[in-house]
Hints:
The structure is a single chain. The chain is mainly β. It has a single domain (43-185), classed as Jelly Rolls (Sandwich), CATH 2.60.120. The chain has helices at residues 32-37, 174-185; strands at residues 2-5, 12-15, 19-21, 24-26, 46-52, 58-64, 72-78, 80-87, 98-104, 110-113, 117-123, 128-134, 143-145. The strands form three sheets. The chain has a six-stranded antiparallel sheet, with no helix packed on it. A five-stranded antiparallel sheet has the order 9-8-11-6-13, with no helix packed on it. It has a two-stranded antiparallel ribbon with strand order 3-4. Strand 1 and strand 2 (12-15) form a beta hairpin. The longest helix has 12 residues, at 174-185. The structure holds dtdp-4-keto-L-rhamnose. The site of dtdp-4-keto-L-rhamnose has 12 residues, from strand 5, strand 6 and strand 11.
Amino acid sequence: MKFTETNLKGSYVIDIEKKGDNRGFFARAFCQNEFKKHGLSPTIVQGNIAFSKKKGTMRGMHFQYPPAAETKLVRCTRGKILDIIIDLRPESNTFLDHFSVELSEDNYRALYVPERYAHGYQVLEDNTETSYQVGEFYTPSTEGGLPFDDPQFNLSWPIEVTELSEKDSQWETFDKIKDELIQRMSI
Ligand SMILES: Cc1cn([C@H]2C[C@H](O)[C@@H](COP(=O)(O)OP(=O)(O)O[C@H]3O[C@@H](C)C(=O)[C@@H](O)[C@H]3O)O2)c(=O)[nH]c1=O
């Protein structure tokens, strides 16, 4: 696996290294030892699949507050997404900066999202499937979110938004939750 740290410390784009033969290829997609060597948490407690029917569908921006903050290892196993993360660690030099990357069935790319980051993505093709492993149990009582179009972040989504959950249409903007977020994200 090839680990490339993004502009946001601790978050990584992970590419596979294919071993091809007459049948196709083989590639390692996760390894506890390699994760540890690069300083990534190797803990996985749940694995999730999300299927989105329609191009333009938006999911995010989501996070869990400590003590249930979670790492995510995100992959797009069918179709294509534009994935964006926002650094919500108050002590970080890149607090409130974001990073975006395209993940697709063709590029086999994964994104490792550290704890205390917001995460979201837009689906770029019909019938897109994401598959991701998380480092903490789903804990709805600690769930938080920000609007995908929060003016604070000026995120650049490539296409028109066609579908959004009710929950994701109701997150308060960063401006409104700033104090609470900084307090709860401080460790
Ligand atoms: C995330 C999650 C949801 N659910 C349930 C709650 C609800 O009934 C249904 C759909 O949940 P949501 O609307 O939150 O699903 P979704 O909007 O796809 O949520 C996901 O979005 C991306 C961007 C992330 O980063 C993920 O961590 C996760 O928050 O599934 C679980 O049972 N376990 C889980 O881990």
